[in-house]
C-alpha cells in the first residue's frame, strides 16, 4: 500500500473507530438482540418471543395503524402545502421574501417541548384559544385530548405545522434552479400560469418532491415527539400511539429490549419499503 494511502487511512482511523463503535456495532447488536428473549435472565435465543409476537400483538397493530393513518393523510397534505408555500415564496410579487422564508422555517428550530406545551394550551378544552374560536361561531367545543379522532387530527396538524415550512424551503431551492427561459418561452406561447405550474413546474420539481416525500416517510415512521408530549404518551387509550412510541414503551418502560429491537427493525423495513415504492411510482417513464 502506498505511503500516501496509509497516511490517509491513519488520519481516518479515529473517525472510523468511533463510527464503528457507536454506529455500526449498535446496529448489529440490536439486530442480534431482536432474536433473544430479554425478559429472562440470562437472555436466550427465541425467535417467537419477539418476531413471532409481532404477528399477534394488538398493540403493534394499533401502533402500525395509527402510524399509517398519519402517513397517508399528513404527508400528502404537508407536501402539497409545502409546494404552494414554495411557489408563493418564489414569487417576485412578494415583498420581504427573506422574512417570510425565515417565518416558514422557524417552527423547525423551535424546541419540541416548548411547541408541544403551546399546542396543549391552544387546544385545551377549558381555556384554549381554538375552542374559544369554535364556540364563537356557535359550535360545541372539541375535547381534543379525550377523543381519539380529534387527538389524531391534532397530531397531524402539529406535525404539518412543524415540517411544512422545512419542506417548502427545500422545494424553493428546486424552484430557483429551474431556468427562467423555460417560463419565458411558455409565456410567449401564451401558456397560462396555471398550465405552466402543472406542465412545467411540477414535472421539473418531481425529483425534489420525491426527496421530500422520502424524508417525510422516514420521519413519520419514527414519529415520537408529538404523540408523547402533546397527547400524553399516545392517548387517549392508545388512540395516537405510533410505532416509535410503542418502541419507547417496550424498550424503556417495560425494559423488553428484544421486542423493542424487533419493532425498530420493522419500522426501518417499512420505511425502506414505502420509500422505494414512492421512488418506483415517481420514476421517469422510459
Automatic annotation (TrEMBL):
Its main location: membrane. It is found in: Cell membrane. One of its GO terms (cellular component) is plasma membrane. SUPFAM superfamilies: MetI-like (SSF161098). PROSITE patterns: ABC_TM1. This is Sugar ABC transporter permease. It comes from the Bacteria. It comes from Rhizobium sophorae. Residues 64-278 form the ABC transmembrane type-1 domain. Keywords: Cell membrane, Membrane, Transmembrane, Transmembrane helix, Transport. GO terms for biological process: transmembrane transport. Pfam families: BPD_transp_1. Belongs to the binding-protein-dependent transport system permease family. The chain crosses the membrane at residues 12-35, 63-87, 99-123, 150-175, 196-218, 257-281. It is a multi-pass membrane protein.
